[in-house]
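Exercise 7b. C-alpha cells:
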C-alpha cells in the first residue's frame, strides 16, 4: 500500500494563471487563506478566510461551502507549517463526510472524477504578494507598511 499525499503544491505563477483564466472563484476553484493575525496587509482576491486558530470549529462550514469546488487551494504566510495540518484535516474530514453519505453497495462510476484537488500555494502569501502585489486582479488591500517593514 502506497501513501498518497493529501495535497500537492501550486506555484504563485500557476495560481495567477488560474485566477486570470476566466474560471469562476468559489465554483471552479477556491483559495482558502488560513493566516491569523498575519492576514494584515493584503490578501488574494476572492479568497475565503479561515484562520488557523479557528479552523477546527469552522471546518464543517468550509466543507459545506467548498464541497462541489474541484480545486481548493490553501495558504498561510509562508506555507511551511500550518498548511500541512490544515489541508490534511480538511481532506480527512471531507472524505469522512463523503463516505458517511455514500451507499457502499451502489456503483460509483463517477468516483474518480469527484476527487477534489487539494493544493497548497508554494511560498504562501509572502511570495505571492512579492510577485503580484501590483496586480489588482490578484492581490487586494496590500499595505506597504506591513510588507516593507521586514515583518515577514
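Sequence design result:
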Amino acid at each position: 500500500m502506497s501513501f498518497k499525499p493529501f495535497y500537492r503544491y501550486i506555484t504563485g505563477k500557476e495560481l495567477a494563471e488560474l485566477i486570470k483564466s476566466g474560471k469562476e472563484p468559489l465554483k471552479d476553484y477556491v483559495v482558502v487563506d488560513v493566516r491569523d493575525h498575519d492576514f494584515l496587509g493584503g490578501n488574494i482576491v476572492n479568497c475565503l478566510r479561515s484562520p488557523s486558530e479557528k479552523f477546527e470549529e469552522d471546518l464543517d462550514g468550509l466543507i459545506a461551502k467548498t464541497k462541489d469546488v474541484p480545486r481548493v487551494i490553501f495558504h498561510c504566510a509562508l506555507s511551511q507549517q500550518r498548511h500541512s495540518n490544515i489541508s490534511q484535516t480538511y481532506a480527512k474530514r471531507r472524505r469522512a463526510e463523503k463516505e458517511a453519505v455514500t451507499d457502499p453497495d451502489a456503483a460509483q462510476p463517477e468516483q474518480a472524477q469527484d476527487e477534489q484537488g487539494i493544493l497548497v500555494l508554494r511560498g504562501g502569501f509572502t511570495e505571492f504578494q512579492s510577485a503580484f502585489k501590483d496586480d489588482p486582479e490578484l492581490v487586494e488591500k496590500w499595505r506597504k507598511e506591513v510588507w516593507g517593514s521586514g515583518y515577514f
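Instructor comment: The longest helix spans residues 82-101. The radius of gyration is 16 Å.
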